[in-house]
Amino acid sequence: MAAAARVGVEAERRFCRGEYLDYMIYSYLAEREADEAKRRVLEELASYELRHYEFWRSRVGECRVRVPRLLLLLVLLARRLLGLTFTVKLLERRERGVIEAYKSYLDRLEGADRVRLQEIIGEEESHEARLLSQVDEGIVKYLGFIALGLADAVVEITGVHAGFLGATATTLIAGIAGLIVGLSAAISMAAAAYLQAKHEGASKPGYSALATGAAYLAAVVLLALPYFATHSNIIAFIASVAVAVALVAFFTFYSSVVNDSSFKRELAESLAVLFGTATLSFAFGEVLGSIFGLSEVEWIG
Length: 301
Known about the structure:
By secondary structure, this protein is mainly α. The protein is built from eleven helices and no strands. The chain has two domains: about 1-135, Up-down Bundle (Ferritin), CATH 1.20.1260; about 140-295, no CATH class. It has helices at about 1-30, 35-60, 70-80, 85-105, 110-130, 140, 145-165, 170-200, 205-225, 235-260, 265-290. The chain is elongated and about 80 Å long. It starts with a helix and ends in a 9-residue tail after the last helix.
């Protein structure tokens, strides 16, 4: 019994420290938030975590922890670069495990404490979605269009580069071809996004077009850069594919957090499409290169 009691006390101290850490992070973000509506959301999240911390403190005593300065700065950086919705959802992902731990711990409590823990579980399950529904962020609103532009660019331009890997040994040709195809496709994708958004009744279809075209063009430039940094088509292609994988992984993770979806499944599907396209394009380039003798063209300079 004594051992079980010690385990229970340690679990409660861990719960207490976790709630205090969350309270400090949300308070830190709220103090540095310029947007009034978003600051109110962060302050309310902090108030929830403070009340949860006070419940556990009432059972185990003072349990504050020192919050690493680096952690606070990293969270603030994520807020600045990736938006409030992503940052809060990323922080709240840990809460899912906490909620399950709380549910498992319910049987250890009785009376008012049990009722209060049930209330805390309900708050943890609902407050994120309810509060984030009050946040209006452009990056989230146009996430689908950004994903469309980025995904299409990564697959299409990697396919172009793979095709030239089989067709010619000249990196300059492959790099320029990727830029030309990419620029044309970015304009086409932006126009398609504009028409789609307008057809769906979006209030600002131009923003949808801009999000799609900008994401496409940014990916095109990043994927083409290695071809202007080396004369080796193999090295350039490997570097470009590494950039493509990094872009796909980053955006898949971002969208999986925001949309509460499976990162591993979506990443596997995206990479399968990417490498499947690259393989087919390389084979097609090999055929064209052998037919027209493009593989004999070498870098001059």
